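seq/struct pair 1
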Amino acid sequence: MVSILNSILTSLMTENEVITNIIIVPLAFIEIFTSMLLFTQLLNIRSTNTQKLIYVITLSTFSIFINIFVPRHIAVFINMLIYPLAIIIVFKTTILKAIIAELVPILIIVLIETIIVNLYYVILNISYNTLLTIPFFRISSLLLIYLLLLIFYLIIKKLKLNIYIFDNYDPKNRMVLIAEAALGIASIGLQFYLIMFYAKNLPLLVSIFSISTVFIYFIFNMYTLTRITTLEITKLNLEESKLYNKTLQLLHDNVRAFRHDFSNIIAGIGGYVQTNDMEGLSKYYSQLLIDCQCTNNLTTLSPVLINNPAIYNVLANKYHRADEKGIKIELSIFYDFNKLNIKIYELTRILGILLDNAIEASCECDKKFINLIIRDEEKNKRQVVLIENTYLDKNINTEKIFEKGFSTKECNTGLGLWQIRQILKKNNNLNLYTSKNNEYFSQSLEIYNT
């Protein structure tokens, strides 16, 4: 029995890369599990137990397979590409959030491993390459890394720390952040391998300082970009306030005018009642209802009801533009915009293009009218954005208008509806139905909850 134990101990303390790789296979599950706990908590990613289980099992199995059959220096980069892809697929996150979810645990693991590797070298005179091939030291170092990573997660959870990555960045800022994050991963990885390669010649403090400098530089750049984006969001909020003040002024003027004429309105109703002129009263009521509807529309055009600043700005701008052209717009909005299953940037583009087209078409008509309805159809698991407008050209081809370069206007590029079709092609949960009748041209955008 003693000899067996000695043999096992000797095997664990002797350089053997094959045995080391076999023994650390189960540790892949621990690493991926602890990393997942960290980034889901830090980035406030909502997930079910099923999603977590699928992520850990799938990614661990794939990682083990890659590490066994692919050379280690190549396997590292393959894993770095697969991790964010798995996060996007399983947790339904954005590309930016997936890259950050990969980057944060890597940064922490690299920093911890750099310290541990140098401690092993200083205390036990074990180089990094030796550490990788002796089973006992490799397992002990990995378990220590995962333990510290778990402690870091528990601290974040206890303090309720979260990094909020805005999903509604415009494409330019989003691409800059993604590029910054990708470069951060590459820089940290390269720095780590350089330090491991020269571990014998570099003091511990120099190694830690080198990794920390890259880490701090990356964090500073991300912070700067986030601050710039925050300023842009503040600018958007100021524009929203400006538009809302304009809406309130119009609403105030309408209410004052209605109050001023209230006695005259009542007197008019009384005249029809006294003469029992129901037909005249009905016509009078219809005219009065039009003015009341205008006031209702202005009440609907509120940031409280349209609870997304980007969408509110688009709708308010188009509403006031139409009002200046004498176009009557009816608004019927019954939905929480924060629950829409579509990127806000894409929705604002679609709304802007469709409303611009509706304004141009109805402006040519004697009856200038646009009807906008946004509603939730819970039974069908979808949201519907319906835009109806009066139009002059009854022979318009509802298929040809989506072709690139097609336009009924001489000065237009004909790219608006073509751009919408490109957005639809990228999203499996979006449908746009175009129809027309003798009075109205209709565009119905369906957003399904997938």
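seq/struct pair 2
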Amino acid sequence: MRNPLPKHAALVTAISLAVASMTFAAQTGLTPTQRAEKFVDALAAGDFAKCHATFDETVAKQMSAEQLKATWAALQQQAGKFLKRHGTRTESQAPYTITHVTCEFANAWIDTRVVFNPTGKVAGLQFLPARKPDQQTPPYAKPDSFTEVPVEFGDPNWRLPGTLSLPKGAPRLPAVILVHGSGPNDRDETVGANKPFRDLAWGLATRGIAVLRYDKRTRAHQAKLAGVMAGFTAKDEVIEDVGHALAFLRQHADIDPQRVFVLGHSLGGMLAPRIARDYPGIAGLAILAGTTRPLEDMMLEQVEYIARLDGAFSDEEAQQLDQLKALAARVKALTAKDATEPMPLLGAAPSYWLDLRAYDAPATAAKLPLPILILQGDRDYQVTGKDLANWRQALANRPNVQFKTYPALNHLFIAGTGQSGPAEYQVPGFVSEEVIRDLAEMLILKH
């Protein structure tokens, strides 16, 4: 799960501007990369009026040139003086084009994320923590040992872009599908400065295992889904697309169709048994920090945990928690007659909450004959030992089910020290090599 209502600020200022209702004349003759680079150059030169002139109408109303100037100053107070820009990368999230410009500051590396609408105007802007360009590859990954192939698959109405990491020189490969946690995740499951799905893909591909990762439907088709709330369930959000991913891999010439595994993280881990139930023939499941309890309860638990991280609990925080409790109570009071209501509660339609209520992940897993590996970080404050205990109880004495815990790892399976919190996700790190090894040796290559 992601952090609802996070309390602690990121290590750098992040400004998310609305991406809606955008009209403007394009900057002709320039690619999105060139426009983004010119935007950063204007920021560095202090020409905030020039930057503001590139905003679309909606964003221009939200942030004046003076506010942009103040934001840039606050960023440099935290990250140090801007030094220079480095590489860029561009992705598509129809109908928008998103360009990341990696920038070097005196004390930090920052990605300036510029969203362009179809006519070339800036429809969104964020400053995000980044890794130094020569520190972006996990030490256990050997990029020369595999290739990254862009792919597209899925329902014709919901085609998904993704990346298939293919080890070189080995036919009939075992393969893994990576299933995201909550929220409109990209294919790398980017959280703050970290990309755990990319780390998993590169680490496993280095060990001879093909990995498919892709942009979640709620990210790739965010605008289209905005008007499709009533009746929406986890099947629409996650499960159906995993079925398409399975079909895609089983038809791939380099993949052994009998050795396709599913790895689910957080919400994806909770749904993994349901996926295996609905799509027979999966070779095995890896459940990483798999949720087992009602999501509305876990949201309350997380919000209170975050609020108390600094040792204080203000009246404002207490009021916020009370409001969230009232919303959670409304979720619990939903009945079948509410299933067609479009009004969201806690970010999801009533149909979504009712669908999850009817599903028991550990009980479903207990009925599956296939091998299962369940991994849990002891420093995870989002999915905790309470959830692990539920898995253990349901799957006790099963010879083909294994459990592994990691004392130093957080929810992203990245090592840290002390009490974990949202700010930790802004610190660049890599998924633990021990996790990569255990996934390969305890499950995928073993079966």
